[in-house]
Write a structure and sequence with these properties.
The chain is α+β, with helices and mostly antiparallel strands and 199 residues long. The chain has three domains: 60 residues, OB fold (Dihydrolipoamide Acetyltransferase, E2P) (Beta Barrel), CATH 2.40.50; 68 residues, Orthogonal Bundle (DNA polymerase, domain 1); 46 residues, Helicase, Ruva Protein, domain 3, CATH 1.10.8. It has a five-stranded mixed β-barrel with strand order 1-2-3-5-4. The longest helix is centred in the middle third of the chain and has 17 residues. The chain is globular, with a radius of gyration of 17 Å. The N and C termini lie far apart (36 Å). The relative contact order is 0.13.
Amino acid sequence: MYEFIRGKIHSMLPGTVILEAGGVGYRIQVPLSTSGKLKGAEALLLVHHTINAEQGEEKLFGFLTERERDLFRALIKVKGIGPATAITVMCAADPDQVISLVAAADVAALKKFKGIGPKTAERMVTELRDDFAKWSPGATSVSTNMAKVPGAKGNDAVLALVSLGYPQNKSETAVAKAADKLGTGASTEELVRQALQLV
């Protein structure tokens, strides 16, 4: 139904962007690989539209690159993985890391993602491995050694975890540990990825 939306960034939190286009505000859920790179007043997001007929709910998921959207669409084709779980996986690791884990048939690593159990991890490998092995490597984000992070980024990271369904207290604890490990200069995206391994 929708291919892309170009508009003014009305507001943004890690994992969610409100994009104003043609006088309409679109709430778009995005992975951290997208929200961490949005700069300036305007953005163009490639979108995937879902409808949950039972709940009468529609959602938009947005991505900066075709690679991110292709990965999302591949993940939701696997039985047991819905859009929310796919976004959670893409928040916990960058696209190339997910693709590499599937291509390497690393079930043990895949099942560490929230919402991915042993059977689902095995299905990911069975259904996606051959296709992912053909995908050429893309750009990956790199985290470096840093010392403690200021509160604003930490607060945004906590909000991102809460929006993914984690309890507030566990989110705060995980982000605090992530901040201790990564330090100053760490982005909100890096904090959330690290915290997702600790929550």
